[in-house]
Design a protein that fits this description.
The protein has 749 residues and is an alpha+beta fold. It has a domain of 104 residues. The chain is 17% helix and 45% strand. It contains eleven helices and 42 strands. The strands form five sheets. The protein has a 31-stranded antiparallel β-sheet. Strands 4-5-6-7 form a four-stranded antiparallel β-sheet. The protein has a three-stranded antiparallel β-sheet with strand order 2-1-3. Helix 2 packs across helix 3 and helix 2 packs across helix 5. It is globular, with a radius of gyration of 30 Å. The chain starts with 18 loop residues before the first strand and ends with a strand.
């Protein structure tokens, strides 16, 4: 007895599937129900067939497929299609087996069979065989460009997913140039522009390099900064390194592999599945988190490495306190139809994607930084992928902000933005916009020579919509304990006039308190005059503000830093603006009531030089005392010599310092960790430590590491051995106050 399949289209979910659509131009789900026939497949009625007819349709073509195979050149591009053809020939076809397949599997089979049926329509294969490879390469090129135009948010994936097929020689390039219908298409011109601007996209050019990033991570009760080093090695490997410990090493085996910049994802996230030719993902892929498969998360890839059918994906910002999923349909790599969000087993309505993979119509979308303490939802209307009209911002169901987007317009030119240089071209509007690493957590391996650097965004045939009129916007990092908003006016998409910064101590408070603000110049629309700005990570127990003056959008002269009305720091900028010079005192380590830490030293041309002191106090009425510090090189401004540094999560209940040596900005040799027993004395107790290698600054030999969020009343450490930055052998978790072993972990040698 076969299993009955039901339609997955929104509001069709209780209707049985009767068969599949074989229309070659169909961009919808191919398995259809009775309601699908009257709606999404109303123009494909002649191409709708039942499961019984579907089986017969395949059998009738098996002999023709055998003839077709004789003439197809065995190239890399056609091998995948031949594999599918072989699979079809070997299938035992019957109606019951067709009905037992998953909808996504039926969708893929129907899609590929329509391709075959199209090929079978050729009358003279001998004559067309000599041009087959060139035609296929042209199709792949056009497929790339079309995908780029319609899926701007995933343009980097696009530029890499078929890099082997893009190795067009001069003869194939000439074939494209000779096609007059194609040359008039501006999408083809993108390839020419990239070549003129020396943006290579024919293959991944791997280059060894190392880059350091600063990330914000949650360390209850506040966010703190942490440093992450990402290395590209000569072995086409990406290493994620934190304080000499290699958190993760990924061998780059696919063309869409992403560089992660989320600490929890680096530690816990893995995708598992199979690869086809050219390292393209094929078949079913699933997700594991902390080694366990996440039920229902993942989906299917086609033989071309494109997502297809029903998918459930992790949100971009997925972590322990932001376990958000997105669910909907893909059609050959493009999101289509209704997509929804799921958080804590609750469904949050999303919206609709059109057949070009663009958001369309009414949407409720989660903020990119949505998490447990910042459940922000934006509600409004999209028009072909662009926000239009009024959008409202909601926090825990209540409206707290928003404003108006002006409708976009089409125009007859486009601008190429590269390395901050704008160049205009006089055909349909296409904008390539360079995105810095800091603007994208999901940056991916780029085809250019510098794969950790620049990314490009394509906006097709439009000017991005402008914000207009009065707006209430949320601060970066808005959450329960940091309800900060910016209120002011936009003109032509830019802020102008007076903008106020307001704060609510809690969600229950009805009144906002003005705590900062300033003005934007009416003409240049840059910051001008006196401003009061908030520190990054401002919250109820860390009310740090900066006061000073702007000129032409740049900070000028003296700026002061205050906490609860008391000046705790400050310094000066040069006459040109934005360049720190001379003596400065700055708060660090997420300065708040329990972690009142500042650093004092000298800036030269915006770079730290010479001796810097790290100072701390427990209460506002006390003086700051020096508890650490070291020196920066006068020329390179990197740390050098002996240093005493604070633990990233340093506060009054975790007064941990690290002592050791820097050489050329890297930790080397022996480093020890200490816990201060009492404020004001220097009776530090050594609680851990180990050695760093001289060459790579990786942890080596025996180490005692502190557990994350180490605190005085739960002093947990890990004791074991490192080899070239990786843990090996047996590691023990120890409560050092009681000298009690809490657990044992084993790592590969």
């Amino acid at each position: 007895m076969h299993r009955q399949q039901y339609c997955t289209i929104f509001d069709h979910s209780q209707l049985p599937i009767f068969g599949v659509c074989l229309d070659q131009k169909c961009n919808s789900q191919r398995p259809y129900c009775h309601k699908c026939m009257q709606s999404i497949h109303i123009n494909h009625v002649t191409s709708l067939i039942s499961f019984e007819e579907f089986s017969e349709w395949i059998r009738n073509r098996q002999n023709q497929i055998q003839e077709l195979k004789k003439f197809i050149t065995l190239s890399q591009l056609t091998t995948e299609q031949l594999k599918f053809i072989n699979h079809i020939q070997e299938m035992e076809i019957n109606q019951e087996k067709m009905q037992q397949l998953e909808l996504s599997q039926l969708n893929i089979i129907a899609y590929n069979l329509t391709k075959i049926d199209h090929l079978l329509g050729f009358k003279d294969w001998q004559q067309t065989n000599k041009n087959l490879l060139e035609i296929n390469k042209i199709c792949q090129t056009m497929k790339q460009i079309a995908y780029m135009v319609s899926n701007k948010d995933q343009v980097q994936n696009l530029k890499k997913q078929n890099f082997e097929q893009n190795k067009l020689g001069q003869d194939q390039q000439q074939v494209i140039n000779d096609k007059s219908p194609l040359i008039n298409n501006p999408r083809v011109q993108i390839e020419k522009i990239n070549q003129q601007q020396e943006v290579p996209n024919q293959k991944i050019k791997w280059q060894e390099k190392s880059k350091e990033f600063e990330l914000l991570i949650w360390s209850d009760p506040r966010f703190i900064r942490t440093k992450l080093q990402i290395n590209q090695t000569k072995n086409t490997e990406v290493q994620y390194i934190k304080d000499g410990f290699i958190l993760r090493s990924d061998l780059i085996t696919t063309t869409d592999q992403k560089i992660l910049k989320n600490i929890e994802q680096i530690k816990n996230l893995e995708w598992r599945g199979n690869f086809g030719n050219n390292n393209l993902k094929v078949g079913k892929w699933v997700v594991t988190w902390l080694g366990k498969t996440l039920e229902g998360v993942g989906g299917l890839y086609t033989v071309d490495g494109q997502k297809h059918g029903r998918w459930r994906e992790l949100s971009q910002n997925y972590w322990t306190l932001a376990q958000v999923y997105e669910e909907g349909e893909y059609n050959n790599g493009l999101r289509i139809g209704v997509w929804k969000y799921f958080y804590q087993d609750k469904q949050i309505n999303g919206g609709l994607y059109n057949n070009q993979g663009q958001k369309n119509g009414e949407w409720q979308e989660l903020s990119t930084e949505f998490w447990d303490k910042s459940q922000i939802i934006y509600h409004g209307v999209y028009k072909n992928g662009n926000k239009v009209g009024r959008w409202v911002t909601k926090y825990e169901g209540s409206e707290i902000g928003g404003g108006l987007y002006e409708d976009y317009q089409e125009q007859d030119n486009f601008v190429l933005v590269q390395n901050n240089l704008f160049k205009e071209y006089d055909f349909q509007s296409i904008v390539l916009k360079q995105l810095d690493d800091d603007q994208s957590q999901n940056s991916i391996i780029d085809n250019s020579t510098d794969s950790l650097d620049h990314k490009y965004e394509v906006v097709d045939n439009l000017i991005c919509p402008n914000k207009v009129g009065k707006w209430i916007e949320l601060s970066n990092g808005f959450y329960k304990n940091s309800q900060v908003t910016y209120e002011g006016e936009y003109r032509n998409g830019k802020k102008f006039g007076r903008w106020e910064i307001l704060w609510k101590n809690s969600f229950e408070d009805k009144n906002k308190v003005q705590i900062g603000g300033g003005s934007y110049d009416q003409e240049s629309q840059l910051k001008t005059g006196k401003w009061v700005e908030l520190s990054e990570g401002f919250w109820e127990n860390s009310q740090v503000i900066y006061k000073g003056e702007y000129k032409n959008g740049k900070k000028q002269n003296s700026w002061t830093i205050e906490s609860l009305g008391e000046q705790i720091g400050g310094g000066s900028y040069d006459k040109e603006g934005q360049i720190k010079i001379g003596s400065w005192i700055e708060p660090i380590n997420g300065y708040f009531g329990g972690a009142q830490v500042i650093e004092k030293g000298q800036y030269l041309n915006d770079k730290k030089v010479g001796k810097w002191d790290i100072c701390y106090r427990e209460q506002e009425n006390q003086s700051f005392i020096t508890i650490g510090g070291g020196s920066y090189d006068q020329n390179s401004s990197v740390k050098t010599g002996n240093w005493i540094e604070l633990n990233e999560g340093f506060w009054d209940r975790s007064q941990v310092t690290f002592n050791g040596e820097y050489r050329n900005g890297k930790k080397v040799g022996r480093w020890n960790s200490y816990l201060k027993k009492n404020y004001g004395d220097y009776q530090n107790v050594q609680i851990g430590g180990g050695s760093y290698s001289e060459q790579d600054s990786l942890k080596i030999g025996e180490w005692i590491d502190l557990k994350d969020q180490f605190i005085v009343f739960q002093q947990l450490v890990y004791k074991g051995e490192y080899k070239d930055g990786k843990k090996i052998g047996t590691w023990m978790e120890i409560e050092i106050r009681k000298n009690e072993t809490r657990g044992i972990l084993n790592y590969e040698n």
